[in-house]
Amino acid sequence: MPGMLSDEEPRPRVNASRLGLVVPGLVLVVLLVVLAGGVIAVRRSVVRSGVDSFTITAAKQPADVEVRRRVVDLEGRLLADDRPWSSTAARGSVLVVSYWASWCAPCRAEQPDLTRVARGYAARGVAFLGVNINDDRDSARGYVRELGVPYPSLFDPKAETAPRLGVVGLPTTFLLDRDGVVGYQRTGKTTAASLSARLDALLAQGGRWQR
Q1: Closest C-alpha to 176, from 63, 77, 93, 62
Q2: How far apart, in whole angstroms, are the C-alpha atoms of residue 211 and residue 159?
Q3: Using an 8 Å Cβ cutoff, are 158 and 54 in contact?
């Protein structure tokens, strides 16, 4: 009958050349969708992790570092209550500055020694300040509570103060004299004996680096 296909009549064929164009096109569309999803995921990850900030990793080996003696001013907001703080308020005291993060294993390992020295030297005119970097506030506050840190810390999640002082690994400890001059830097875990010896030597010369 007209309009009907018999078994003998040829069935319509898909144009092979057109199919050859359509299939790669569909594959390309799928790849673009997957790639776009990946880019979005990466962007979200960058926003969450603050990759655009100055990122510091844990130091592998402790080492004393030569440091150019100069006046250092540290300013920021405190981890505990977000109040502004400036190192100028510590002038007249020897100041120990400790850079740390809650995820840093050597920081946790050295914290009991820092706490011991901070308490033992408070009456001798030595102040302590922590600087928490590349961290989130809740984790950092949990670290302070868990380890009983007795001194304040600045909250510096993007490590904006780190390049100014030359921080290249965590933890890093600095000694500033009574005039705010930095004269000692240790990258990596410190000990109570090592830090006490440095403080004793500085206090023996009036709390000021010899120039």
Answers
A1: 93
A2: 30
A3: yes
- Cα–Cα distance measured from residue 73 to residue 104, given in angstroms and rounded to the nearest whole number: 25
* Residues 184/203, Cβ–Cβ less than 8 Å: no
Q: Specify the pTM.
A: 0.74
Q: Which residues contact 173 (CB under 8 A, 6 or more apart)?
A: 96, 97, 98, 99, 114, 184, 185, 186, 190, 195
For the stretch 186-207, pLDDT in tens is: 999 999 999 999 999 999 999 9
Superfamily the domain 63-204 falls into? Glutaredoxin (3.40.30.10)
pLDDT in tens, 155-175: 999 999 999 899 999 999 999
Phi, psi of 100 (to 5 degrees): -155, 170
* Of 65, 187, 195, 177, nearest in space to 118 by CA: 195
- Extents of the domains making up the chain: 12-52, 63-204
Which helix (H) or strand (E) segment is 98 a member of? strand 94-100
